[in-house]
Amino acid sequence: MDFEFKPGETIIYQNGDSFEIGIVKRVCENGDCFVNYHTGDTASRTPKENMHKIKNLYAFHVYRLNFNDEEIK
Questions:
Q1: pTM of the predicted model, to two decimals?
Q2: Helices marked H in the chain — which ranges?
Q3: pLDDT tens digits for 18-41?
């Protein structure tokens, strides 16, 4: 399946048998994305084939924390 992702969207990244929640920072021309997976400002380029949309995101509030446990807006 080929999905379009948007900046600010929460995604699940599958890396082998492990999964990580991330927030899309920027979308590349080929559909890959730079995604924030941690409290820092550095985003990791992630292949779109390993990114998954979250169907029931309406039921959750997901936000990132900085190193002081403050919400990153």
A1: 0.86
A2: none
A3: 999 999 999 999 999 999 999 888
